[in-house]
Amino acid sequence: MILECCGCKRLFFRRDYWFSEWETMGQNPCTGEFQIEGGVETTYWPPPVKRKPPDWIEDVVHTDETLGKLLSEMYTALNSDLHVLSAIAARTAFDRSSELLGVDAALNFSEKLDKLVEIGKVSKNERNTLDVLVDAGNAAAHRG
């Protein structure tokens, strides 16, 4: 189906794929009667925007094109439900950001976080949050 949003007038495609093996029997919560449920997978293209990129990304692109592209691609991955790729992009964006802040690229991620705390670019609480982000990105990159 080709659909148009009544609000923004954006056009998009909807695809309903039916497969009988995906159907299950369920009970209607109102009548109590048994009925067939599921069996259809619905996808949209382009996918609906789940996370709008912040306005400041354009400023980042003008400051450092590589970091700007990384962030833009991360949001594209997030909006396409590509969670592993978005985690890898977030980790890579952190790596690039720390490099731009003067942290030695040869350090491992934990050492980079320590250095960012030492030079006053992140607080200890922010370090803990970034540690989780970096760990998720590492897991996504190495274990999928």
Task: For the structure shown, list the relevant keywords.
144 residues, alpha+beta, three-stranded antiparallel sheet, 22% strand
Mean pLDDT: 89
What are the segments in which pLDDT stays under 50 over at least 5 consecutive residues?
none
- Helical run tally: 5
Q: Provide the helix percentage.
A: 40-55%
The major sheet is characterized as: 3 strands, antiparallel
Structural class: alpha+beta
| N to C succession of SSEs | EEEHHHHH
Strand percentage lies at 15-25%
Number of β-strand runs: 3
In the sheet with the most strands, the strands line up as: 1-2-3
Overall 3D form: elongated
Task: Give an account of the 3D structure.
By secondary structure, the protein is of the alpha+beta class. It is 49% helix and 22% strand. Strands 1-2-3 form a three-stranded antiparallel beta sheet, with no helix packed on it. A hairpin with a 6-residue loop joins strand 1 and strand 2. The radius of gyration is 22 Å and the shape is elongated. The two termini are 33 Å apart. The relative contact order is 0.09. The model has no long low-confidence stretch (mean pLDDT 89).
